[in-house]
Every structure is written in C-alpha cells, then in structure tokens.
Amino acid sequence: MTGKQAIIEFFVKNNIHDLFYLPGIHTLSLSQAFSGENINVYITRHESNMVFMADGFSRVSGKIGVLIVTPGPGLANVVTGCMEAYGDDVPLLVIHIDTGREGIDKGILHGVAEPETMVRHVTKEVFYVQSTDDLIIKLDSARKVAMTDRKGPVLISIPYTLLEKEVETIRSSEENPVQMQHIDDFDGLEKVLAGKKKPVIIGGKALMFEKARPLLDNICLHFSIPFLTTTSGKGILDEENVWCFGNIMQKGIAKKIVSSADIIIAIGTRLRDVDAKRRGVKISDLIHVDVDRAWFDKNYSAAYRASGKILPFLHALNEIFTSSSFNWRLKELKEAQHLERLGLQNKFLGFQLINVIKNSIPDDTTTVWDLNLMAYWAEYYYPVRHQHTFIMPRGISSIFYALPAAIGAKTAKPEKPCLAICGDGGVLPTISELSTIRKYNIPVAILVFNNSGFGILEDYMRATYSIEGMMALENPDFMKIAAAFGIKSKRVKTLQQLESTLRQLVQWNEPFIIEFSSPVFAPPWRT
Questions:
Q1: Does 337 reside within a domain?
Q2: Side-chain half-sphere CA neighbours of 342 within 13 A
Q3: 178 domain-assigned
Q4: What is the number of structural domains in the chain?
C-alpha cells in the first residue's frame, strides 16, 4: 500500500475516528486519502488552537488526541500545546508531515534542519521515519509511547514524499504494550500507617479512572477518611459526598483537615509546586504513590513511596485499613465547610459567579476553563460531580485554551453539554475557531467573562504597585463577531441575567455565546 493508505489503516486499526488537521501543500495527498473514509477530520484555523482541541478531546475521552501538522511554521505553532500536554500528562500523537530532508540546505519551502528539536524537550519521544520500511512500525511505536507509563505527547515526522510511495507492509509485532512498573512491595506500608488516627487521601489526575471510584468511595466512607484533590484531580469522586472536601489549595476547612492529618496519602499526583506548595499547602508525614518515581521528594519528602499501578495499591490500602478506626468527624467537617461557603457567597463576587454557573447547568456538563479570575475561583471551589468534566490547562497554565479545547471536548462526548469559560483576554486570539464550530455544527456554549483587561494581572498591579489600568484591553463587540458567524449570543450584566440565560440553554444543541461584563475582583488566595 502507499504511505497515505498505511496512515489511514493505522487510524482504523487503532479505533481513531477523530483527528484535527490544518492542511498545507505538503499534506494534500493525505487530504485526498481521507475522502470517503469513516474518520472525522476537523480542519481548524490555526495550529496552536488545533493542538488544544486534541488536548481537550483526549482529556474528556481518555483516548489519544491526534493532530496532523505541516512542516516549518505548522510544527512551530504546536510547541505551546505540546508543552501543556507534556506538563499535564495528556497523550497526543502529533503527526508531522515533513519536507524532504535532502534539500534542506538549498532553501526548500518550509525547510528546517532537524525540526523535531523544536519539541524534543516537551514530548515524551520523537520519531523520524527515514524510509518506507519503518512507517508502520514507528506509527505503532509512537502511539504506544504516548499511551503507556506516564502519558504524554509524542511526535512522528513523516517525509511527504512517502505518502505516495509503496511502503513495507510488515506489521509491528502484536505484543502487549509495555507494562508500567509493578507497584512496590507493600511490607513497609503497614508499618508507616501503624498507629495513625487521622489519615487524609489526596488524589491527582492519574487516580481519575472509573475502576478506582467505587473502591475509593468505600475506603473513605467505611473508614471515615477525608478526600481532597489537586486541580487536575477534580471529579475523581463526587464532591457532594460527605467525605469529599475539594481542592487542597483552599483555606478554611480544607486547610484545617490537611494540617490536622497525621499522615497524608497522595495518590496519582506529582505534588508539583504549582499544585500545592505555592498555595501554602504544608505536608509533614507523607505516603506518595504515582505512576513512576519522577516526582518523588521534589517538593515534599515521603516516608513511603510506591510507583506503578495504582489500583493494586488501593486494594492494599483497603485491606490494611480493615482493622483500623480513625478520628475524623466527616459530617461535622462537611457542615462547617458548607457554612464557610455560605460566608464566601455573601462576600465575594468570584464565588457568586461560579455558584451561579454550577446551579444553572446540568451536573454532567463538561466545563472547560481558561485561566482567568472566574476560573481561579472555580479551581478552588467549583464542586465537580463527574470524572473528566472539569478541564483546566494546568500543565503550563496556558491562557488561550478554553475555546479550542472545548471544541475537542465536545467532539469527544457529543451527548454531554459543554461550556467554555473564557476571559476576554484569552478568547480573542482563538475566536477564529468560531468558523470551525460553525462549519461542523459543534454545539459548544461559550461564556466570555469580560472585565476589559487581563484581570489577574490588573489585580496584581493594583495590590503590588498601586497602578490602575495598565492591563486594560480594547475589545471588539463580541455579539457582532458571533452574528458574523451566524451564532446566537446574548450580553448580560447581572448574576440574575447570567443565571436565566444559562438555564435557557436547555437543549444545548446549538452554539451560543454569552458575554458577562464584570469589574476586576480579587482572586481566592487574597481572601
């Protein structure tokens, strides 16, 4: 078969039915091969948006996100998205249709010597297909690397000249994927837990899978153990449960729980500085369990460390706890936290906003957040009830994320409502993708939080330097932009109007833009 046929067969064999693509002169042969195939090819308007679409698709579906980029500027434009995916363990397959390497020194179109070096430090691995003999083998290898151990983005460069050539049809061996390192011996675990009366479990993204949910619920319920999460772990368990207390970044009751614990059991989280320590989270005695050893003892020293498969660890924990009793009064703590949040509701616009959103949309709505003032309040206090429904770019904290990532999230779960929450500073550079939404009729609702500036930076300038207005922005009329793309929209100025408008999106079956005008307010860590 030809190279382009081999790529199509690779997609079919691996159940890849959705991919994101911005074509160029080097990829037209591949475009022709897509015609008539049972693959949803979403042609986007910019590569930096495209990689976030693939990222959002992967986070919501649990599958690998696939994108196809052209050489030179096309590849350069996905670097930021690869950084985000690499920083938050999101599996992406970046298929780079490259120039021919033989003419690099002659000034050929888009020619770059060793273009893979652009992303080498923000991908798990890069592959270069040198001949027709290794195209299929390297495609399979790239997918396996992206999806095994600590997941992440992988790049494969394929010279465009191979698309029309006959390629070697020998398949890679069908051995099982490389298995994660098996979890360490549990002998030391029971010793570390002996005598502990107030354990707390902190869950991170690697703990977010359905098989873990009932086991975790059982452990926390029957042994009376508080459960908290990092930002990427929001939704592991239903945060309405009496044993769930939200993000470890919070002050008040959550901080009291962590500081009162005599052992912290952190599972599936790297415990990066940005996830915890930067917000004042102090941990003394620690059991740290993760998919590998890469992040052990980086920010918090552990008394016990285990790497490998997480589910066996949960079973071991459940067995060890069988003969234990703990001193937490979960119902009292939950009631105290409820009162604490009533106080926040009465005092802070940021809390009021996220409360309006939560109470106005279905529980299973996928919410996708840019980093803006409203999103920071959501990171702390938005209660998430379902897995993979709270999406925030915490890999490197990208700002231009929510709109394109929501497109990918909605294509991954078309049956679920999807709401992108964007700042006015973050949405404008991505707003060209309204064309993609319109072209493929992707019913994403977009909430533009408009404070006419880079709000978090404006707050910082006020608080630190007593300077007003330096971070102000000149914005267009977002309603007119929506109308230009044939998308319905509404501008609201009060919380009541926002609630009413969100509730009217009952069917969530068409794209819609809501602009909410608001002053700059303080982030949650200033309260």
A1: no
A2: 6
A3: no
A4: 3
Question: Using CA of residue 504, residue 510, residue 515, residue 521, what is the dihedral sign?
Answer: positive
Quote the mean pLDDT of the chain: 91
**Structural domain includes residue 335:** no
The partner residues of 419 in beta bridges, in order of sequence, read 367, 445
Q: Which amino acid, residue 22?
A: L
Q: What DSSP string describes 300-340?
A: S--SEEEES-HHHHHHHHHHHHTT------HHHHHHHHHHH
* Residue among 380, 383, 345, 377 nearest 251 (CA): 380
Distance CA 478, CA 342 (A): 33
How far is residue 42's CA from residue 440's CA, in Å, rounded to a whole number?
Answer: 8
Sequence-distant (6+) residues with CB within 8 A of 29 are 4, 160, 163, 164
Copy the structure tokens of residue 197. 């009366």
Distances (CA, A) of 369 to 9, 56, 262, 449: 35, 11, 34, 11
User: Do 156 and 193 lie in a common domain?
Assistant: no
Paired residues of 153 in beta bridges: 92
Last residue of a domain, one of 329, 360, 392: 329
CATH of residue 97:
3.40.50.970
The residue with greater pLDDT, 458 or 176, is 458
Q: Report the CATH number at residue 252.
A: 3.40.50.1220
User: Do 352 and 279 share a domain, yes or no?
Assistant: no
pLDDT digits (tens, 9 = 90+) for 16-64: 999 999 998 888 888 888 887 789 999 999 999 999 999 999 999 999 9
Cα separation, 322 vs 458, in Å, equals: 52
Dump the DSSP string for 78-127: THHHHHHHHHTT--EEEEEEE--GGGGGGT-TT--SSGGGGTGGGSSEEE
Name the phi and psi angles at 43, rounded to 5: -85, 120
- Other beta carbons less than 10 A from residue 526's beta carbon: 11
**Model pLDDT for residues 489-515, shown as the tens digit of each residue:** 999 999 999 999 999 997 899 999 999
pTM over 0.85, yes/no: yes
- How many whole angstroms separate alpha carbon 22 and alpha carbon 502? 33
Domain containing 21 equals 3-162
In a domain, 158, yes or no: yes
